[in-house]
Amino acid sequence: MNVKFNYLSIFFLPLLFIFLSCATALPFEEDDLDDVKKVAVIIYTVPAQIIFLTDARKNRVGVEAFSSKSKKIAEGNGKRAATLAHKAFIEELNKQGLKFEVISLAEMAANKTFMSLDHRHSVESDGQRNKNFGRLCVGPEGFNSFGPEYDWPSESEFFDNEEERNYIKASIAALKVDAALLINDYGYSFSCRSCTDIHGEMTGAASTGSAFLATMVDKDGDAIFSITDWFDKTDGKAAMVSNIVNPLSHDALFRAHGVKMAQVWAAALNKKIEKANN
Questions:
Q1: How many domains are contained in the chain?
Q2: Are 172 and 40 contacting, i.e. CB atoms less than 8 angstroms apart?
Q3: Which residues does 55 contact at the CB level (< 8 Å), separation at least 6?
Q4: What does the pLDDT look like over 171-184, one tens digit per residue?
Q5: Which of 234, 185, 179, 201 is nearest to 65 (CA)?
Q6: Does residue 24 belong to any structural domain of this protein?
Q7: Are 217 and 166 in contact (CB under 8 A)?
Q8: Is the pTM of this model over 0.90?
Q9: How many CB atoms lie within 10 A of CB 55?
Q10: 12 occurs within a structural domain
Q11: CA quadruple 169, 174, 176, 182: dihedral positive or negative?
Q12: pLDDT, tens digit, for every residue of 87-138?
């Protein structure tokens, strides 16, 4: 299977002062989903390195001791994080009682037409570096990845050019679904569930945090709705000693991240539907 990898960098995030879901500027009515019976999560973009952040919504790395230049930080592999969270996200979404089915990762991977689609960017490389923050973004193993060129929580559409729109439309057609869900998790990071700061080094129980933009797009390449939301921990826990999250626990944390995101996203969608009906 000949799959080309192309990445577009992502921007990190300004601080919000609320813990609630952020409604987008896109108008939403429940009947917008009437024709949506099957959905594919074709994009799940995360930072190339999963680092510790005191707040997933911020564009800086915790306190000075957590600088990405510090040799004491054990970074998580972004591609591994995206691959495991993507699968868990899809599986958990189908347990949320939504009005549509989300097709499995196995079904997507088995579709040769979809997997052969190539989304090219103006810069051809293994990754494209964010000009502001010097970070790379990646997606699940074997999947194309791209993201918006806006800060979270931007209310813009996920894509901003015809090339990306055509890629999304071709993906929807190849997978024979009614819509695509595009995820960009700007704030995917390690976090503290309960930690103690000892001389500038954190020790305790680690988890993961998120600040994401999720856009659903129809067969015509038009955005149906977008959701921005965030969380600071999941049900996953791992030991962290002197700023280092146990590498043997990374996979479990990444899976728990996908589960939590599905729950948060589904709850936000239900709130949008409830609001539209009132």
A1: 1
A2: yes
A3: 15, 209, 232
A4: 999 999 999 999 98
A5: 201
A6: no
A7: no
A8: no
A9: 18
A10: no
A11: negative
A12: 999 999 999 999 999 999 999 999 999 999 875 543 333 444 433 334 567 8
